[in-house]
Design brief:
Layout lengths: L1 H15 L3 H6 L1 H24 L13 H16 L2 H10 L11 H35 L2 H24 L2
Helix pairs in contact: 1-4, 1-5, 1-6, 3-7
Length: about 160
């Protein structure tokens, strides 16, 4: 969750600095980020398919290095998703008011507020999902099939991202 928010915050900064406009207008830059993001999703999918059902184990202790790995995965998924850049580029300018101050500052404020709102909405959903995963993840067979489903989903999303316009 924090990794996703950090990646989204990078897009807020990019939008405020108008760097995501380059992704929106440069076919080469957009394609490069899109293909890197797609490859990463496919790689995550393959890792989930290859697991033995251990990724759903909720009772396992996570080391500080494990938390950093999870954070980095979330960050990369968000920051390498060109659709997030396009979202912020298309959504945020609607709230810019002429004469209300710097456009960059307004974009930064509005983008930051989106992440703050997510900080209130997403944690309860994740806690509910964690409880559900905890009850289902204790069964190795269910856990293995959930990993396979997650792997197939990630690969499908990666292929869809790679083939999207």
């Amino acid at each position: 969750m924090f990794g996703i928010w950090a990646g989204a915050f990078m897009h807020v900064i990019f939008a405020a600095l108008s760097l995501s406009a380059i992704l929106a207008t440069s076919a080469v830059a957009f394609s490069a980020v899109k293909l890197i993001g797609a490859a990463y999703l496919v790689w995550l999918g393959i890792q989930a398919l290859r697991s033995k059902g251990s990724t759903m184990s909720v009772n396992a202790q996570v080391s500080p290095e494990g938390y950093m790995k999870i954070f980095k995965q979330g960050f990369l998924v968000a920051v390498l998703n060109p659709k997030v850049a396009i979202f912020f580029l298309a959504f945020l300018p609607q709230f810019v008011e002429a004469g209300a101050g710097s456009v960059s500052a307004q974009l930064f404020l509005h983008g930051s507020l989106i992440i703050v709102v997510a900080a209130f909405i997403e944690p309860p959903l994740i806690l509910i999902g964690g409880k559900l995963a905890g009850s289902l993840g204790n069964n190795i067979h269910v856990s293995r099939w959930m990993d396979r489903g997650l792997g197939a989903l990630f690969i499908g999303l990666g292929v869809k991202l790679a083939t999207s316009d």
